[in-house]
Specification:
Layout lengths: L15 E6 L2 E6 L11 H16 L5 E6 L10 H6 L8 H10 L3 H8 L4 E5 L2 E3 L1 H8 L2 E5 L3 E3 L13 H9 L1 H10 L2 E3 H6 L5 E3 L4 H13 L3 H14 L4 H15 L3 H12 L9
Helix pairs in contact: 1-4, 5-6, 6-7, 10-11
């Protein structure tokens, strides 16, 4: 059972640090000693509980995910793999169940997240860390960042959904090249293949991500959430299904006060003030 997240009760050693700057939530993976490896019940539950909190509070209109220390996320805990501990303990059926009850909760949590998420990739995004970046809606990177779908290098497959996520971000051939070689690429190559949208100097990364998040957050919060849901669902739907779903959400959008506020502000030549209803 996921415990309700309360930002006021957050401690400095939390696996994910949460802060709210205006309408933008900033989430920081807070395990620099493991280069922000994705392991342990505390980490998995943090994603679920923080995302549930964000879904419940419409004042959160956009979000940023980054990593503490020099890495964005180093993926799985290699020491636990070696020692057959944690998720990696037991036979084939045990491990399959461990993954379902463990790291696979993260992509499922992302699938249920209604708030747009920007990855601010500050350093290495390796294995599950690369897939974590792909779970986000938009990716920016420091020029110090490196990316690798490196599971084959340690004799395993992408168990966290990478084979579903990565081709949808960079296309099938590029995804195969990354996944089948396991080789790392730098930020400029990641930009070239569409893995990230922009490369900036390390000291400019968070300000660039915040500027982008704020440009999203100035829009009506409910419409942002509906638009994100349409984009997600369209990846697996036919055109007719997408059009039907768009009609449903459009019918709701036209009834909102924020829609009328947007129209009124347009004709009055002023900035709109959205309230989320």
């Amino acid at each position: 059972m996921t415990h309700a997240f309360d930002p006021s009760q957050q401690t400095a050693d939390a696996p994910i640090l949460f802060s709210l700057e205006g309408h933008v939530a900033v989430l920081t993976l807070n395990r620099p000693q493991t280069r922000n490896a994705l392991s342990g019940e505390e980490m998995f539950q943090a994603f679920e509980s923080i995302f549930e909190y964000m879904n419940r509070h419409t004042e959160v209109r956009a979000s940023i995910l980054t990593g503490a220390g020099s890495a964005f996320c180093s993926g799985g805990n290699i020491a636990e793999m070696r020692d057959k501990e944690g998720m990696f303990k037991g036979g084939p059926e045990d491990i399959a169940q461990n993954y379902k009850a463990g790291i696979q909760r993260i992509p499922r949590a992302f699938q249920s997240l209604e708030v747009p998420m920007i990855a601010a990739v500050n350093g290495a995004a390796i294995g599950a860390g690369n897939d974590l970046a792909c779970m986000c809606d938009i990716r920016l990177a420091s020029d110090k960042a490196i990316f690798a779908e490196s599971f084959v290098k340690v004799g395993i497959i992408p168990g966290d959904g990478g084979c579903w996520l990565l081709p949808r971000v960079i296309g099938y051939a590029n995804a195969c090249q990354m996944a089948l070689t396991g080789d790392s690429i730098g930020a400029q190559e990641a930009l070239k293949i569409g893995l990230i949208s922009k490369v900036v100097a390390p000291e400019a990364l968070m300000s660039e991500a915040m500027s982008l998040a704020q440009s999203i957050a100035k829009n009506p919060p409910q419409v942002l959430r509906w638009t994100k849901r349409l984009m997600q669902e369209a990846r697996n739907s036919t055109l007719d299904q997408a059009l039907d779903r768009a009609g449903e959400f459009q019918g709701l959008a036209h009834q909102t006060r924020d829609h009328m506020e947007a129209l009124t502000a347009f004709f009055e030549k002023r900035d709109p003030h959205f309230l989320g209803h």
